Amino acid sequence: MEPHSLDFKEAAKRALADTELQKSLSSFKAGFSLKRLEAIQKLPEFEGLRDEGIAIKQHTLAHLDFYLGRFAEKVEAAGGTVHWCPTPDDGRRAILEILRTHGAKTATKSKSMVAEELGLNEFLEANDIEPVETDLGEYIIQLAHERPSHILAPAVHKTKEQVSDLFFEHHKTRHLTEASDMVAEARQFLRPRYLAAGAGITGANFLVAETGSIVLVTNEGNAELTQILPKVHIVLATVEKVVPTLEDAATLLRLLARSATGQEFGTYTTLATGPKQIGDQDGPEAFHVILLDNGRSKILGGEFSEVLRCIKCAACMNHCPVYSVVGGHAYGWVYPGPIGAALAPNLIGLEEARHLPNASTFCGRCEAVCPMRIPLPKLMRQWREQEHEKKLSPPRFRLGLDAWAYLAKRPALYALATKLGIGALSIFGGAGRFAALPLASGWTATRDFPAPEGPTFRTAWKKARG
Amino acid sequence: MSDGRAAILGNIQRALGRGELQGEARASCEARLKNHARNLIPARGQLPREEQIALFIRMALAVKASVSRVAKDDDVPEAVVAFLKGQNLPADVIMAPDPALDRYGWSSQKMLAIRRGKPLDADQVGVTGAVCGIAETGTLMMASSPEHPTTLNFMPETHVVVLRASQMVGAYEEGFDMLRAKGAMPRTVNLITGPSRTGDIEQKIELGAHGPRRLHIVIVDD
Asked: Which of A77, A124, A211, A388 is deepest in the core (most CB within 10 A)?
């Protein structure tokens, strides 16, 4: 997918002014975070599982070549094929070749963020193959010609009324008012598509080196119908998804659903190993894994390598004060929220993604809820430092920051400057608030700036320590 | 294709600052795969059998499955018919061609029409067994085989599962060991926790998105 992350500021402004979007996001805020909290309170071992989950990921990443090699051998021993794809272009080519070999004219798809990285739907359409999204949220946004705005709930930005209008426009039945009727109608319209599809394309939550299995978690059962009904099952996965054993997958699965939606376990956790076996009455005749790197191997071993622990649970965005008001589209690429801000500059370049690490209040909730304890604020801070060093931020901003740094390194001068500054502010801030301030219009455009009261922090600190 | 493999593995090895994994480090990874040691298992499911069954039922009900429990094999068909009747569903089922289901004396229910095999789109009720029940989260494990087509778990709107009390285990890992005991991994293994659902419209949970709208589990004591 072509990134539009450089437009973040304008997109965020549009999002804040979009009343329908704000309505959708307001119901989203409390839902996931409350359910997550309830789920982890029911499991006393949750913190221990986090420790072990992190250790599993760290071990696997340190031996990634070994486990990927073993995974591929096991897939091949089960009769499947692994396509090693360094770039998105390699991935798209491999997929097209498989689809053409099997004469597939339509492909059902279950939700995959890797497919978004590949811009797969546009690519398939350009090659006369019709992609059919089957996850309800993905189906909704496919009808609307939009992008997912959340990695689990892709249509979280849509209201029920908007879904009703979309279904009416495309299904040409009647205007539905109840969500249950919309779910039933989508089921009815999609079932024949599953049965007629030439291929099924899914993502993968984990790849198991021990058995060559792919592990998929869904609630709808759409990934299951997508992979067992057509003749070909194509799996899209990035290299960091591999884990050593089924036991390791189990530990991460115990963390995943609880962190994601607050469920004890996803409704369906499915392991798929190769094509159908002798005597099986259903299942695909061919099984292909597209193993995509797309920049991950370059992250490994560097100062951002902790992002590779991510299990794509979305807890960070579910708890992010910025995500929860601007929504996912503003981030302009595949992965929104804090994980997107830490990951995207690695994959699409800091120049394009430079606003994202700044779209954070550093409140730290993302790191606190991340089951893999990825230090997201630290990683975003590292990107901000690089942005400054590489002179990507506007000159005026850098000048201000450099001036502040000059003062901050000279305590006596700093004390003098703050004294003068505060003195000036107190003189003019008679009413206790400023409606406008020079150099601070970004703040005062939407709210007042409080006039300083009492001693500075440094003075109070000195006094408190005696 | 092998070029891609060499490029990716080469990049990884460069990033990790070493060549191909060798010696002791490799042996320890090999051992990890071979031993597949268990990690932390929540205490919740590590109970005597009868308490595991109680936990399983509690967890399954919490995710909107329904459960009935019968004392002996001969009571199973009646429990299935009673469930179908209660839901206003036809007594017409597609049943897995699994010999393990033959013991239940289905002929006692004259009104129950049974076809064995994989489902057609029109089939409304599927009946299968399971590899095991997992008490920890009220989860059923299903494995594909000639006797158990996976489509039975997903296509019909109603899925009825007959589970023997002795098939109850505490944790997923015990289920994995049962799969290993079968030999090669089956093509498809489904861990099923309640009926199909979606929250994609305004985060409100609706059942029966693409898989079954109803999941009924008959536990038979043995």
From this structure: A211
Counting one residue from chain A and one from chain B, the pairs whose CB atoms sit within 8 A come to 267
CB contact (8 A) between residue B203 and residue A156: yes
**Dist. CA B114–CA A233, nearest whole Å:** 31
Q: Which residue out of A57, A220, A231 would a mutagenesis test of the B interface target, given it has the greatest number of B Cβ atoms within 10 Å?
A: A220
Q: Which of A52, A63, A134 sits opposite B39 (nearest CB)?
A: A52
Domain end, chosen from A243, A270, A297, is at A297
Interface test with B, best of A167, A238, A242, A268 (most B CBs within 10 A): A268
CATH number of the domain encompassing residue B180: 3.40.50.10420
pLDDT digits (tens, 9 = 90+) for A228-255: 999 999 999 999 999 999 999 999 999 9
- Residues B26, B127, single domain; the answer is no
Which residue bears the tokens 């991935």? Answer: A91
A270 and B188 within 8 Å at the Cβ level: the answer is yes
Give the end-to-end CA distance of chain B in Å, rounded to a whole number: 53
Among A238, A272, A297, the domain boundary falls at A297
Query: What are the angstrom distances between the C-alpha of B102 and each of A148, B76, B132?
Result: 47, 11, 18
Find where tokens 């849509």 sit: A158
Question: Taking CB atoms and an 8 Å limit, are B201 and A155 in contact across chains?
Answer: yes
Question: How far lies B135's CA from each of A245, B51, B60, B165, in Å?
Answer: 22, 9, 9, 11
- Best mutation target, A27, A28, A65, to test chain B (most B CBs within 10 A): A65
**pLDDT score of A422 more than 90:** no
Instruction: Give residue-wise pLDDT tens across range B122-149.
Output: 999 999 999 999 999 999 999 999 999 9
| Average pLDDT over all residues of chain B | 97
Q: Do B173 and A246 touch (CB under 8 A)?
A: yes
Show the tokens assigned to B6: 């060499």
- A459 belongs to a structural domain: yes
Whether B88 and B184 map to the same domain: the answer is yes
Nearest to A84 among B8, B33, B118 (CB): B8
Helices and strands in chain A: count of H runs, count of E runs: 23, 12
Instruction: Provide, as residue numbers in chain B, all residues whose Cβ is less than 8 Å from the Cβ of A291.
Output: 8
Whether residue B68 sits in one domain with residue B18: no
Domain that holds residue A179: 43-297
The domain tally of chain A equals 2
What is the per-residue pLDDT across B61-111, written as a single tens digit (0 to 9) for each? 999 999 999 999 999 999 999 999 999 999 999 999 999 999 999 999 999
User: Given an 8 Å threshold on Cβ–Cβ distance, is A246 in contact with B189?
Assistant: no
* pLDDT at residue B1 tops 60: no
CB-based burial of residue A440 (10 Å sphere; 0-12 exposed, 13-18 middle, 19+ buried)?
exposed
Residue A288 domain flag: yes
Q: What does R_g of chain A's alpha carbons equal in angstroms?
A: 25
Chain A residue numbers touching B13 (CB-CB < 8 A): 65
Q: Which pTM was predicted?
A: 0.95
Token output for A334? 């595949």
Reported ipTM exceeds the 0.85 cut: yes
Please tell me the total count of domains within chain B: 2
Helix residue ranges, H only, chain B: 2-16, 23-35, 49-62, 76-86, 151-154, 172-182
Do B87 and B117 belong to one domain? Answer: yes
**Residues B48, B26 share a domain:** no
Per-residue pLDDT tens digits for A332-366: 999 999 999 999 999 999 999 999 999 999 999 99
Whole domain around residue B25: which residue ranges?
A: 2-35
Q: Is residue A386 part of a domain?
A: no
Residues of B in contact with A195 (CB under 8 A): 121
| Closest B-chain CA to A225 | B154
pLDDT category at A429 given cuts 50, 70, 90 is low
Contact B188 A63 (CB under 8 A): no
